[in-house]
């Protein structure tokens, strides 16, 4: 029954799938033309790796700055003393680390700064990719192919000169909302534990509703934030104006954006899963050879290497498919902006994108028939 429903649903949305596939083809063509985008995702993650190294070193210094205080023993207990090498029943209640208020605030700010910096670097990466794709769109594909990194470098220069503060503001807003959401989620779990102990249905209902609301707010904010980065790259406006402009374009072209993003995200997710599963299959076939089943290279169980290959394959696939995702959003929003500026007729869109997203031609095709 489920298979029949899935088959009928696939037939019903076949036209939508073809449209989303056309936009994916345009995005893939852009990535192929701007060849630097293929290797660009590695750069921000290398920067993040260097940043995490220094951050972790500073975190060790902060967490070790507290004062170690032995707890008061009010009950009889025994524990193994590593220094004496025997069981000790005197003052064995353990130790606690006491932090001064200044160190506690510094630790919280350090943790918050890590998330903020992560969102900032990801936002910069998205803005650079969107700027490169937007340059390709508005130049009608007439970009310089003599210098492979010309478009990406130009987008990076625009980011550093005009849009760095906007990206910092957007990442700060996301970080603050995420931390508020984390605090509210912690409170919700504690209240849920208390209500479950009392058996209150009202408490369970409120807990489930609050979790759903927080999840919707988080998803909406991240979506608006990502589209704001795209509009910053397209128009060069500040974060707030770009957010309003992106939201307005999406609301005015909800059918165009919806039919591409929903199905396109599903297709990209299937692509990530296929890549990761192929990596796992390749690892399993490689470990199934004779040299890994006997001798010094013998593998007792291929489960851990296969799972590790699957995880690494998914991470790498997600890293590079993110370029395609940002490219799709940029092409769609550029098309909507182009249509808004030219009274509903996009002048700079590629022919395949025009056939896919042009509503007038689609209505004409539906009224006149095939």
TrEMBL record:
Keywords: Membrane, Transmembrane, Transmembrane helix. The keyword RNA-binding does not apply. One of its GO terms (molecular function) is transmembrane transporter activity. It is found in: Cell membrane; Membrane. GO terms for cellular component: plasma membrane. It is a multi-pass membrane protein. Signal peptide: none annotated. The chain crosses the membrane at residues 35-55, 120-139, 159-184, 266-287, 307-328. Coiled coil: none annotated. InterPro entries: Choline_transptr-like. Choline transporter. Belongs to the CTL (choline transporter-like) family. This is Choline transporter-like protein. It comes from Zea mays (Maize).
